[in-house]
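Quick start: what a row looks like.
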Amino acid sequence: MDPTGLDLPPLAAAFVFGLLGGAHCIGMCGGIMSALTFAVPPSMRHPARLGGLLLGYNLGRIASYMVAGALVAGLGTLVGGLAGEVRLVFQVLAAIMLILMALYIANWWKGLLVVERLGRRLWRHIEPFGRRLMPVVKIPQAVALGAVWGWLPCGLVYSMLAWSLTLASPLQGAALMAAFGLGTLPAVLATGMAAHSLARLIRHPATRAVAALSIIAFALWQLWRLLPGSAGH
């Protein structure tokens, strides 16, 4: 069953959302990736070593997304099972969060920053663990630091977690967040590997606008399918 109520497979949609959110990923995580890259001692800064560390960071980051997705989906399943109407509320919330995410990506409205501020309280307790892993010179260190980095307050991630609330199981929540995380890889790796031309393309206002409009269209379609009497209700 497609938890979105749409014909579009949810994992493919989550992956595409990760790709479309690339502009935000560069702004949010690009500086982190660059800093981690330059923190590697110059003698160890050859392509194979850097490539392994960058993949390690992102493997850890995506693993954290999966854990968060499983936890949120589990909560949604528990609460939704106690009250059937709650599932509908979660679906509406997920669509609204997607619209807010789109506005954020396009720089049309930054209301999602309010949600990010709430996450900073948790981040203050997690961030010191990351500092203890610096400087990173081995792949296991990179994976561990990436797992810490995955809890960095991010409106884009929170929007996808709201979608995880609508899913039927923690396994689906983890899979959805894994697909989303994989979608973010091109933008984040482009920054870490100094692929400036790709980074500029992703951050271009026109690219942001197309991404935002695509996500808004998806969210509105999802809301329409929830209306009584609609074809997908």
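That is the whole record. The chain has one domain: 10-198. Confidence is low (pLDDT under 50) at residues 1-7.
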